[in-house]
Write a structure and sequence with these properties.
- The protein contains 14 helices and no strands.
- The chain is an all-alpha fold.
- The radius of gyration is 21 Å and the shape is elongated.
- It binds a DNA duplex through helix 3, helix 6 and helix 13.
DNA sequence: AATCTAAGCAACCGCTCCCTG
DNA sequence: CCAGGGAGCGGTTGCTTAGAT
């Protein structure tokens, strides 16, 4: 299977985006909605008489990581941090999946935050050989958090199983946190605002749209948002429905996650969930 | 004030997945 | 069923900026 030639095309611009390019992209998406990225460079010529000389990948990335409305920027809260750590233990380096639990953060943001902050933090806190989620995918090629202690000699079977148990416990904790956060978290409290913004967004664009590009960008940037955020709060299952740009990725993981969640939840309910069963957990708990 | 270094982050690259014909 | 192509994901790079010397 050959790679997409779009990014190799000559004449395609690379590097940091300019405000003008952002406006072009936002204007395009306001008219067409996100998706069909391949058509963006062409359609911006047709629609706006100005071509956006960026490849489809670049457009998608710019939109999802920066322009997409509802994105929260700035430092991560302790709650978010905690959630990321737990989800990383549960899912491994599947940043897109983790990002579905933090609708206002992008996968890229989370990934960067993990690599620049959390990894170090955990390494400092947790003694060698007990580092949760460290290089979780490097050995198994999958998201096996229990195999995350890969930088050490093979673990005896019994011990390995104990650690697996420990990770299951972590996963449960993460799930509970994720759910409880949705009830108390700013995300939830801002649902109304987001929904209102979404309605604004859904209004037909004014004919004078292009006369005030700055406003257009701002309105728009609070918009889609919404689509993603408002539909995505609380329940992972409903999360995917509104946001076309994350729909596909969520679709990929939705079923497994739902199964996993159901399983974890059922188990937690049945067992009433108990104290950590492994020193590892104590270590990670001590982080907070 | 100038230079060096490290941290943070935006963007790119290359791979895989999945849809469509 | 298969091949092609678009979309998405995770890893990595490289630029910018802040802090240290």
């Amino acid at each position: 299977m050959g790679r997409s030639p779009c990014c190799d095309k000559e004449g395609m611009k690379k590097g940091p985006w300019t405000p003008e390019e952002d406006l072009l992209l936002v204007s395009y998406i306001q008219g067409h909605g996100p998706g069909n990225w391949k058509a963006v460079p062409i359609n911006t010529v047709v629609m706006l008489a100005v071509g956006l000389m960026r490849c489809s990948k670049s457009c998608r990335l710019r939109w999802t990581n920066y322009l997409r409305p509802g994105i929260k920027r700035g430092s991560f809260t302790e709650q978010e941090e905690k959630l990321i750590i737990h989800l990383q233990a549960l899912l491994g380096n599947r940043w897109a999946a983790i990002a579905t639990y933090l609708p206002e953060r992008t996968d890229n943001d989370i990934k960067n935050y993990w690599n620049t902050h959390l990894k170090k933090k955990l390494q400092r806190k947790i003694p060698k050989g007990h580092q949760l989620g460290e290089e979780a995918t490097s050995v198994s090629g999958g998201h096996d958090a229990s195999l995350s202690m890969d930088c050490q000699p093979p673990i005896p079977k019994g011990q390995w199983e104990r650690r697996l148990q420990a990770d299951i416990h972590l996963a449960k904790q993460a799930l509970r946190d994720a759910i409880s956060l949705s009830n108390t978290h700013p995300y939830a409290s801002s649902t109304e605002n987001i929904a209102r913004l979404l309605q604004e967004w859904m209004k037909p664009p004014p004919s004078t749209k292009r006369t005030d590009p700055a406003n257009s960008a701002v309105d728009c940037s609070t918009s889609t948002a919404a689509a993603a955020a408002s539909s995505s709060l609380l329940m992972p299952e409903t999360r995917a429905s509104g946001a076309s740009e994350i729909k596909a990725s969520v679709g990929k993981i939705q079923t497994p996650l739902s199964i996993l969640e159901t399983w974890l939840l059922n188990e937690s309910m049945e067992q009433g969930d108990t104290a950590p069963m492994d020193p590892i957990l104590d270590d990670s708990a001590a982080l907070f």
